[in-house]
Amino acid sequence: xxxxxxxxxxxxxxxxxxxxxxxxxxxxxxxxxxxxxxxxxxxxxxxxxxxxxxxxxxxxxxxxxxxxxxxxxxx
Length: 75
Known about the structure:
Residues 1-73 form the Ferrous iron transporter FeoA-like domain. The chain is an alpha+beta fold.
C-alpha cells in the first residue's frame, strides 16, 4: 500500500521509496528510508497534506509525495 493511503493513527514500515531525482533525494533526506516505522498523526480537512511521525519528529508532506512511498501496515 502507499503511504498516502494509510489511515490516521495507523502504523507502517516503509518498504520502498519511489520517485525520481530531487523528489526521491528529498524524501530520503527527510528520513523516509526503508525499514523505518511511520505513523499518520493528522490529515488536513481536505486530505492534503498529511502529518506523519517518524524517527522522533513530525513531518508534513503532500499526498502526492506520500504516494511514491510504499509501506507495509503493522499493528
